[in-house]
Write a structure and sequence with these properties.
Layout lengths: L1 H29 L12 E3 L5 E3 H10 L35 H8 L19 E4 L6 E5 L7 E2 L1 H15 L18 E3 L4 E3 L1 H7 L23
Antiparallel strand pairs: 1-2, 1-5, 3-4, 6-7
Length: about 220
């Protein structure tokens, strides 16, 4: 009888751990920008309700030839907390998505995108190819300047970063000594990587390039 009760308790605990692990993985996916596959920085809310980093959105529009209200860095999105005294440092410091990833995004079946392009005499509505829902999203003539920053999501990302840093940093397992802090994880490789090592061990055009990056695990989480 005692053994049966112990086994039932053990099974219940394992089921709970599986549910928690699944929830954490789902949460990690929600904190990654669909363009750069890194944690959101200054996320913008698209009209389709999906999010994208401000710098990534500008890069995507710039690749399509939008200028002015679309891809010009001087055009700031609307935000209740985005005032001259509270804006973050210039986004040029932000690691932009790799060119090949942008090429895949722009060639993945989206339609045409009429709008304020170089040489256009009559500016039209600016369209944005949402990488999450694969739809053409209408931004309006103001482009990114008409979008709101997702301040709630920013706070969630910041709190997640703080929780990960508690108890020490997770280091890249592939770096030469001294290792850098890990910025990505890979469940298929069962390893943590800095940005450079992730690119090195997941070369473009190989099967490993299809691996989906995750956020690095919490220092208190058990290692695989």
């Amino acid at each position: 009888m005692a053994e049966a009760e112990d086994m039932q308790t053990f099974t219940s605990i394992m089921d709970a751990l599986v549910r928690i692990s699944t929830s954490m993985k789902n949460m990690e996916k929600e904190l990654l920008c669909p363009v750069c596959q890194e944690m959101y920085k200054q996320p913008l809310v698209l009209p389709c309700t999906h999010n994208v980093c401000q710098a990534c959105a500008r890069e995507v529009l710039g690749q399509q030839g939008y200028v002015g209200h679309g891809g010009d860095p001087s055009s700031e999105p609307t935000s209740p907390a985005s005032t001259p005294s509270t804006r973050s440092p210039r986004l040029s410091r932000r690691t932009l998505p790799k060119p090949e990833r942008l090429d895949r995004l722009l060639k993945s079946g989206f339609g045409t995108y009429p709008g304020r392009k170089r040489g256009a005499l009559h500016p039209q509505v600016i369209m944005f190819p949402c990488p999450a829902c694969q739809g053409d999203v209408e931004l309006g003539e103001r482009g990114l300047a008409g979008l709101f920053r997702n301040l709630t999501l920013e706070r969630v990302v910041e709190r997640y970063r703080q929780s990960v840093s508690v108890g020490g940093s997770i280091l890249c397992q592939l770096c030469k000594p001294p290792p850098l802090e890990a910025t990505k994880g890979c469940t298929e490789c069962r390893a943590t990587f800095c940005n450079e090592c992730f690119k090195l061990f997941h070369p473009w055009g190989t099967q490993k390039a299809q691996h989906e990056p995750t956020l690095p695990p919490s220092p208190s989480a058990p290692r695989a």
